[in-house]
Design a protein that fits this description.
278 residues, mainly alpha, 11 helices, 77% helix
């Protein structure tokens, strides 16, 4: 009796086959695909108006609330408080807005959107970099609305249009650099709720334990020491120098250096952690 031995079946790894078949993506194609992902993120925000609540409503509500609640107690009247407060609201608004970057990234990963991206012949970095590019528009809108609300309430920046524009650009850069921290958290956290919780624990102490809303001189000595080294305080002081006096002080340089350091540390961490999910 003759025994027929069936040939061993080769185990097929679908992900490996897709990776092997994917051709090398050029730099120009990577840029194009990143912009396509950025446009996708913008369309997603347009179709989900609730994602604009923090961008559109927060600057208006916080500016009015803090001005009328603390203006008389801290500066004597609202108009005298605005030059101190508006740059603080600017920093708070942009930093709070960048917190949503990691949350939305985690939501996409939970819904399986990135599983679809793995099968596409696109650059691996495009789905991560695209939303980061799109978020620049969110920071710009939030910063512009903050100053616009301040102008409505009587704020007259001594630095003129140039100083205000420079303050907005500095705040947008800082928000974008800090967004890499929350992007990294989004790639390692287990849920979007966890990302939001971690982000709130980081941002709120840094924002409120700063010189954003009160002068440092009014704080206890131990707290004032922390406030002076708080990175948010450097951003707020730099924005005040630019918007109120059109002065490029050393605080501007410190803010830029700190932003570049954050990008240098957390951008590679985010990309490395993100690639583990692909």
């Amino acid at each position: 009796m003759t025994t027929t031995i069936a040939p061993a079946r080769e185990t097929v790894d679908a992900a490996a086959r897709v990776a092997a078949a994917r051709r090398r993506v050029s730099v120009a194609e990577t840029v194009s695909q990143t912009m396509a992902m950025a446009w996708r993120a913008l369309k997603k925000m347009r179709r989900n108006p609730e994602q604009f609540f923090d961008v559109a409503l927060q600057p208006i509500l916080f500016t009015a609330m803090f001005a009328y609640v603390f203006g008389g107690a801290i500066a004597g009247d609202v108009e005298s408080y605005l030059p101190l407060m508006i740059p603080g609201i600017l920093a708070q608004t942009v930093l709070t807005t960048c917190m949503a970057t990691g949350t939305q990234l985690r939501e996409d990963m939970e819904k399986g959107v990135f599983d679809r991206f793995k099968s596409l012949p696109i650059a691996r970095i495009a789905p991560l970099a695209g939303p980061m590019v799109a978020d620049l528009s969110r920071y710009t809108i939030a910063a512009t609305l903050t100053f616009s609300m301040g102008l409505v309430m009587g704020y007259r920046p001594g630095g003129g249009a140039g100083g205000v524009l420079a303050a907005i650009l500095l705040a947008v850069f800082t928000g974008w650099s800090l967004a890499w921290i929350f992007t990294w958290i989004g790639t390692i956290a287990r849920s979007a709720q966890a990302v939001q919780g971690f982000s709130m624990m980081i941002l709120f102490p840094l924002t409120f334990l700063s010189n954003a809303f009160v002068p440092v001189e009014s704080l206890p000595g131990w707290l004032a020491a922390f406030v002076r080294v708080n990175p948010v305080s450097h951003l707020v002081t730099a924005a005040r120098d630019l918007a109120n006096h059109a002065t490029v002080s050393g605080e501007v340089a410190w803010t830029i250096v700190a932003g570049l350091a954050v990008i240098a540390i957390f951008a590679p961490l985010s990309v490395r952690s993100y690639k583990r999910h692909l």
